[in-house]
Amino acid sequence: MNATRGGHKAGQKVLGSFISTSDWKSILSDICSWASTRESRYICTCNVHSVVTARMDAAFKDVINSADMALPDGMPVVWLMRRDGFKGQQRISGPDLMWRLCEQALERGLPIFFLGNTEKVLGLLTQRLSTKFPELKIAGIYSPPFGTFSAQENEKIAAMINGSGANIVFVSLGCPKQEFWIAEQRGRINAVMIGVGAAFDFIAGTVKRAPLWMQRSGLEWFYRLISEPRRLWKRYLVTNTLFIFYVLKDILSLRRVSD
Hints:
Layout: E1 2-4, E2 10-14, E3 17-20, H1 24-36, E4 41-46, H2 48-56, H3 58-66, E5 69-72, H4 75-83, H5 94-108, E6 112-116, H6 119-132, E7 138-142, H7 151-164, E8 168-172, H8 177-185, E9 192-195, H9 199-204, H10 212-216, H11 220-227, H12 229-258
Parallel strand pairs: 4-5, 4-9, 6-7, 6-8, 8-9
Antiparallel strand pairs: 1-2, 2-3
Helix pairs in contact: 2-3, 2-12, 11-12
């Protein structure tokens, strides 16, 4: 199903979640355009775990479908979009998006803010980015407390970010917490908020990313599983199985309708 989203352009539904269909150039251009005027918007990066969670949780699906962009982060999601007519759809992964936006932020003089993860990871992350991009304006970093944020904590974070002058906020709180949070902050935080998942760890170097050939062949999940089996086995084995089940179910439903 090809449709339009209020904040962005065309999109394709994947297991019921509206995923933006666009390329790197237009995505970066649109985000930087919004960021330059500190528009309050939020962007989700959606992989298999995201669309399966949205399929089972109506509230989370609403968050994805209401985003200014919901980008295809995960080759199985990209493959489904290509199968349904968007042949040239590219994968827009959280770590790659964050890195490219840091490059754009440097060129355009846009301050950025990092929210989430631990103080150690944030320290390593900013150290690496400052080494790679010495003139990059890092407006602030904050490692919030674990668990659900109180109303007072949310007010504190919003005031911190708004006061910093940041144009782009990268959020690493884990899925679906980060998506719910940035959706709730639209209209409160004057910046483009982007949920980037494990991107902080990858760029900081605390978690090694899969080789490029595994990323391109849809095996990045397997690399992460064998790297952190105790933490990730349930997530990947259960959600990947459900993803296949839901895709087959939808295919069979469409065939019944066409018959």
